[in-house]
Design a protein that fits this description.
Strand order of the largest sheet: 1-2
Distance between the termini: 18 Å
CATH superfamily: Response regulator
Strand content: under 5%
Order of helices and strands: HHHEHEHH
Shape: globular
Radius of gyration: 14 Å
Number of strands: 2
CATH class: Alpha Beta
Structural class: mainly alpha
Number of domains: 1
């Protein structure tokens, strides 16, 4: 969800050409699968399309390719450190660190509460965009 929320925000801010946004799994369970149907429906409720996306695995080469790698929770961050061989350049962060309530994004896999996840992801992406641009985007 975060990939598409962030893409939507930068597009609406007229900044899309300045950003390369992608998402990758830190585990293998969903590799090759499309966006999970309830997540796809939640994005669609907000006019955001995610057609064509399939899950791919994070690779160590992604560390050099991207300026930041953003995890949704502590388990993601641990897996990201393992896959990337550490974090020597301080590129690995949690999305909610860009909000007034740092911690983990609500995980809908177990709770099925995609509304809570949407709120966390949207707030985190807005905060991340503010941090990257120094501008208000709300």
């Amino acid at each position: 969800m975060a990939e598409f929320v962030m893409k939507d925000l930068v597009k609406k801010a007229g900044l899309a050409p300045r950003f390369q946004i992608d998402s990758a799994a830190t585990s293998a369970e969903e590799l090759g699968n499309p966006v999970y149907p309830p997540a796809r429906r939640k994005l669609a409720e907000h006019g955001i399309d995610c057609a064509g996306k399939t899950a791919r695995q994070l690779r160590s080469a992604d560390y050099a390719k991207y300026d930041l790698l953003i995890g949704m929770d502590g388990a993601n961050l641990r897996n990201m450190r393992r896959i990337c061989g550490g974090d020597p350049d301080g590129k690995l962060r949690l999305l909610m660190a860009y909000t007034g309530r740092p911690g983990d994004v609500a995980d809908p896999w177990y709770t099925r509460d995609f509304d809570a996840t949407w709120r966390d992801v949207e707030e985190g992406c807005r905060g991340l965009l503010r941090a990257l641009t120094g501008a208000e985007n709300e």
